[in-house]
Amino acid sequence: MTLINTCILMLFLQPLFVYVALFTDEIDLNENTSNPNSDPFNLAFLVMTPSFAYFYMEQFWYAFGLLACVSFFGLILAKIVEPKAKRRLEVQRIGMFVFVWLFMFGIGYWLIGLFFDSPTQGANAVEAPESAVSYYEKFWPSLYFLALMVVTLVLKIVEYKFSLKEALSGILIIISAVLMGISPLFGEAYILGLIANFFIFFIFCSACIEIDKISDASGGAIAFLYGYILMMGLGFSIICKLVYEVFF
């Protein structure tokens, strides 16, 4: 994906990042500990965008500048809606997450360089405009994954509305947790497919859990099961990709 397309995509996603950061339930990375000052992970979504500059290393600072401007737009939007949000913007936490994202993406770029072809190869070449067909060939697993999650959410709403006993939606969420990491193996954009699938799963799974909490306050406890299955599927996917790249 070209840098301009990435910036446009991230620009459209900024309102979603603001919603996740300020309006959704707190994601506490240390909720199993007794630390009262643990940081919620939600705010990290606001400053993740500049880290995608690692995918454009031959024009890193230019890409970083453009993506930082996109992220700054998201921060302005977050500041506008902050008075009605569940939490406040805190400069110290946001600064910490900027460092964390840059460090994580940097490590990821280094690991990709060890096992895969350089993601910046041919970055300076003149690129022909990509057609809708080429985008479909790259991201069709994520498109079908999105369709599966939409069906799952609709089914969850129907089950809640009509008090159905058979929780077919729960089975679909478990299947989706597995497919989140595995489905990008079949497309032509593995890393971007993983990123897209993660956000799709996070958004729709969170909505399903919120519906469960309406009728059962403890309904969110199953999120640990979903998370465990998701990590198992993601680990299996990464191992398969590494084996394929190294031996084939």
Task: Describe this entry's structure for a reader.
- The chain contains seven helices and no strands.
- By secondary structure, the chain is an all-alpha fold.
- Helix 4 runs parallel beside helix 6 (190-215).
- The protein is globular.
- The two termini are 24 Å apart.
- The model is unreliable at 28-39 and 118-129 (pLDDT under 50).
Number of helices: 7
Instruction: Give the overall shape.
Output: globular
Task: Describe the sheet with the most strands.
Answer: none
Return Rg in Å.
19 Å
State the helical fraction.
55-70%
Structure characteristics:
248 residues, mainly alpha, 7 helices, 66% helix, 0% strand
Structure summarized in a few sentences:
66% of the residues lie in helices and 0% in strands. By secondary structure, the protein is mostly helical.
